[in-house]
Fold each of these.
Amino acid sequence: MRWYGKSGLTCNRMRTSFLSTALVLLLALPSFAQRKEKLITIETKYGPIRLILFDQTPKHKANFLKLTKEHFYDGVLFHRVIPAFMIQGGDPESKKATSDAMLGSGDVGYTIPAEFVPELFHQRGAVAAARDNNPAKASSGCQFYIVQGKTYDDVTLETQAKRAGRPFTETQKEVYKTKGGTPWLDGNYTVFGQVIDGMAAVDSIAAQPRNEANRPDINISMMKVTAQKMSKKKITRRYGYVFAR
């Protein structure tokens, strides 16, 4: 049996108290699955498109949430659609544009620094920021696109890797061969989110008749864009999306 003097008993009590407090705080913290995430919903005439935003691209995530909170996207058009490629929207000038107006140059007066993350790539359903040809590859402050894409085989992927200027990982190759995407955009445009439900709506929008500038003949608006807090566990259960830890 170990004997403690008066000071030893005090230290032991302090240590026990500290461990108890730490345990209480640990138990009070939400588990990974219980942590809240912002689920973005874009309402369209073809159905809702639901997506999540990545923590690995904090500047883009914060900006998109800010604009959503301000109802910036409510009523803007998907002004550029290309089948087997992507649908693009977010130009504020599209809200009141005439049917013959050229769209795509509207902005919010600022850009966002590029946030390239190798693990976030242009697979089907990826949400990425549009940009002009600035050398820093900074993103538009408001315009974005959703990848529809197409599938590739090994030979064409080699060509796309050269076009992108970087090799693809084995995981990326498998996704591009099975699910599809737009691989040549990797490392050139920031991917900051992923559609987890509603790709049928994306496919319908991409299939609409369009003019020479790829603007749909009939206006297709983001009728309403909202952000709803939801636990990661509930998102996984409801939509089947598994979050990376």
Note: The helical segments are 6-28, 58-69, 154-164, 170-178, 199-206, 232-239.
Amino acid sequence: MVDCGAAPGSWLQVASGRVGPRGRVLGIDLKAIDPNGLPSNVQVVEGDVFEADAPDLLGGKADSVLSDMAPDTTGSPSADQFRSARLCEQLLDRLPGWLRPGGACVMKVFEGEAYPELLKRAGACFERAKGYKPAASRAESVEMFLVCTGFLGDSAPGAGSVPARPRPQRPAGW
């Protein structure tokens, strides 16, 4: 598992428990993450997520990618939501090299004008892509999560030179 924007590290602890003692978790953030108290299956890297070679650090492609990244806010909700969506777009660009086919990705995004296009793009890369706003989130918060499962890998449009395969029908409720 790769955790992008992992500081201060609480999701790393949760992820470690989910992957179990034989699984590996890689946490990357621009901010330092104190490794003290983290389980032995967690590796932390201080640096730019988009310059990291996650598969090399993990020893292969990940089963899942979690992103809690957010831009430094400017105070302009319109500008901030576009910058947030851009971070997610950049992450989607890297998934063919980072995520195994069938894998999952959860990304935090600020809901706004750019969100529908991001959801559409994620839907082309995964069997299922759906927005989720946790009940614990404040009503006025624009933070939500894009939950994607069934990564199509190189067959996703724009992910490589292989043409896209027909997408399966989504179950009711999606």
Note: Strands lie at 2-4, 25-29, 42-46, 62-67, 99-110, 126-132, 143-151.
Amino acid sequence: MSKIVLYIAASLDGMIARPDGNLDWLNAIPMSEEDDYGYGDFLANIEAIIMGRTTYEEIMGFGVDWPYPGLATYVFTHQPDFRATSPDTYVVSENFPEFIRQLQYKAQKDIWLVGGGQLVTYFLNENLLDKMILTIVPIILGKGIPLFPDHPLETSWQLAKVEQFDTGLVSLTYDKK
């Protein structure tokens, strides 16, 4: 059975986006083809992607080509009339736990939980998250969308790996206990 992995960047104060959902602060992170902070290796082990509707709309608003070609992407929403326009993208609007379990059994590789915060908390509260890879960006936003909003249940995690980068970013990998 495949694992569901949260792979996400957060500010030092635990925000994943500005209050309006904007991710412009992530553009300040230097990127090169030689050092992608492990993103390429991570993506090579992913078969499917799950994200919330708001996160999907934010990505679509970037004005770039769909960044996940060839990967089945599932947009979770409580709006049954919502339609996705990107390739290989499907809308899931009901029976979330059952859908997730079936996807885990069918998948040969891991499943990436992209976000947003409400969906992350849902996965935590439903005991559906197996691993977290949190990249901490050395910036304090002061306000925004928290990584774990809406009162997540208490859960314990085991630190599995720490990576430090010259840019000040730190990647923390946690496995569920």
Note: Helices lie at 39-44, 53-60, 96-106, 117-125.
